[in-house]
Amino acid sequence: MAQQAYVTETDNGGSGPESRRARIRSLLVRLVGRLSAGWRGDPRIWRRGLVVAALALLLALVMLVHARIPNRFGNLGSLMETFLPWLGVLVPVFLVLAFVRRSATALIALLLPAVVWLNLFGGLLGDKTGGGGDLTVATHNVNADNADPAGTAHDVAASGADVLALEELTETAVPVYEKALAATYRYHSVQGTVGLWSKYPLTDIAAVDIKLGWVRAMRATATTPEGPVGFYVAHLPSVRVKLQAGFTAHQRDKSADALGEAIAADPLSRKILLGDLNGTMNDRSLNAVTSQMRSAQGAAGSGFGFSWPASFPMARIDQIMVTGLEPVTSWTLPRTSSDHLPVAARVKVTTP
């Protein structure tokens, strides 16, 4: 009896990784082909989407000249600078509109805001965190209405910070924080609504006058194994966005100037500022501070490090800034019972 040979397929029906990648590539090629086919030979691709193109150019212009937008009209300039990184969200929105309108003009115009945004914030997208360092610091606006101050204290102490700053402390909550942090931090001082907890001795402790009429800033010297470091803790006044008054920040701006003057007059060469500044590094109203100190997040962080509001962070208003020290890494800590995220950084204490 004649025997018949059967051949069995052995390539799994083309379901391997290489085959899947090939199918995806094929789909993309067909999709691009269909899109381009609809555009080829259409002279209107240059005349359509002029409104989208104009909006793209306006977006680029706003980002380019944000520092020149005046503050005299409701502090519009500071409001724009506070949320400046979010203007980049409009680029993909306009990109979709350009494809829907099948407008080559709009697509080309979109290159300008994309390049401007990358020039402003592209450096923050990468991971600049490193290893080493010899001093870990953290700061947290704990929220005056915090329902679990003890839990919040334990959470931020778990960060491993050698020096910890807390803002928005209430008279009733202070004993709770002191008790919860006593086992980790031998030294501490509370001045008004801000406090500093340290594993190293604190000297030269004093309130800092930021022109409020009550205490929301302080200074102390921590004697670290690498030498003395001056610490500032500050909670600048809140800002408000009102329909009639705009971005009301006059008192915040006045306090920022006073804080900057105090830091500049400090004889120590190594200084760290911890606190809720109610403003971002882009806000020109904080220039008295930001012009003389480096942002730990900007120098050694990963991403934007947004800290507020905790439920959906949109801006980094909680800052760690240094002078005379080298930031090594910077990060945000897990959410607590506060409406802010705690932030932390590790720095190298360099020789004065």
Automatic annotation (TrEMBL):
Query: Could you tell me which species this protein originates from?
Result: Streptomyces phaeoluteigriseus
Q: Can you name this protein?
A: Endonuclease/exonuclease/phosphatase family protein
Q: Which Pfam families match?
A: Exo_endo_phos (PF03372)
Residue ranges of the Endonuclease/exonuclease/phosphatase domain?
A: 138-340
- In terms of superkingdom, the source organism counts as Bacteria
Record's keyword annotation contains Nuclease: yes
Q: Which UniProt keywords apply?
A: Endonuclease, Hydrolase, Membrane, Nuclease, Transmembrane, Transmembrane helix
Query: What stretches pass through the bilayer?
Result: 50-71, 83-100, 107-126
Question: For this protein, what is any one GO molecular function term?
Answer: endonuclease activity
Residues in coiled coil: none
